[in-house]
Amino acid sequence: MTEQISIGKYATLLTLTTETTAQQLMPQCKDMQFLVGKIGTMSLNKIIASVETAARREGIISENHYRETHALYHAILEAVNGITRGELSIGEVMRTVGLKFAIVRGRPYKDIEEGEWIAVSLYGTIGAPIKGKEHETIGLGINHI
After folding, report:
1. 3-class SS of residue 3
2. Spatial separation of the C-alpha atoms in residues 115 and 21, rounded to whole Å
3. Treating both helix axes as pointing N-terminal to C-terminal, what angle do 44-57 and 66-83 enclose, rounded to 10 degrees?
């Protein structure tokens, strides 16, 4: 069996803690590319666009390789599925989110032939667009590039 490094756990730690703490807890991930950001919206499109734009701007994915954008897109959708409990809608059903997101790109397997993977973690709040009427939520998506 191939030894595995958990990029999903690392992405989740980055959304739940500080970058320094995440790196202390998982030093084997120090060479992976990652970024952390925030988004608040009532639009699913804005979550996808914000995460994708941040990934391009910081060089996590290349604009020249469709497979990288495609892999990120599916990881985002999988993470959104988690925060919305399987209902891919937010504003249409009068919900709003305030999220911290992390994207991690790397090789989770020691076997180099397994290639690179990308993980997206979303953590924050979801609920009615009324202050104090939200609750915590978390989602994780992982896809191969």
Report:
1. coil
2. 27
3. 140
CB 33 within 8 A of CB 104: yes
From residue 136, alpha-carbon distances to 81, 122, 132 in Å are 14, 11, 11
Residues forming a β-bridge with 53 = none
21-76 residue pLDDT tens: 999 999 988 889 999 999 999 899 999 999 999 999 999 999 899 999 999 999 99
Compute the chain's Rg from CA coordinates. Answer: 15
Alpha helices (H) in the chain, listed in sequence order: 7-16, 19-25, 44-57, 66-83
C-alpha 104/C-alpha 11 separation (Å) is 6
Contact 145, 13 (CB under 8 A): no
Q: Assess contact for 34 and 14: CB atoms under 8 A.
A: yes
Dihedral angle computed from the Cα positions of residues 6, 11, 12 and 17, in that order, rounded to the nearest 10 degrees:
120
* pTM value > 0.85: yes
Residues 118 and 54 sit within 8 Å (Cβ to Cβ): no
